[in-house]
Amino acid sequence: MDENAEQLWICKDHPPSLFRRFQFDGYNSLRIFLDRLADLSKETEYYPDISFGLNYANITVYASNEKVLSEDDKAFAQRVDELIDPT
Amino acid sequence: MDENAEQLWICKDHPPSLFRRFQFDGYNSLRIFLDRLADLSKETEYYPDISFGLNYANITVYASNEKVLSEDDKAFAQRVDELIDPT
Prior knowledge:
2 copies of one chain form a homodimer. Chain A is an alpha+beta fold and 87 residues long. The first copy, chain A, has helices spanning 3-8, 27-44, 71-81, and strands at residues 10-12, 17-23, 49-52, 56-62.
């Protein structure tokens, strides 16, 4: 996980996880993101907890081993970042 | 909202809202439900808070006027129920 990605995600301890809130300009761009994330989840078998409303999505990536965040957990979070179209 | 639907949703007060947890046998049936719900949201302009993981979805329908649940709010919740394929 590169430095840029590390600044975007909040690292939590109980339970160990990475959290990030994504803000969107509207429902359509949110839905595109959620569809891409669903495909990424199926590809990687990583199923983060996702909560969303009209124009936001909160993503929580839990440590797969439930003890400590692995490089794979962090790599998944970084791939989630890459689903966002560069502005 | 018919009696059956009223038993399925938990009525909360602070803030006034309806909450229901939907459980699925797998990610595919969850995704079908979420896609249908997204279409219903666009049709009705009701955007409930949704949180989901691998095989569940928690739906919270807030009172549109932020004070009391209207018949329209309840009708939307019932339409969400109807997105589930009868087992």
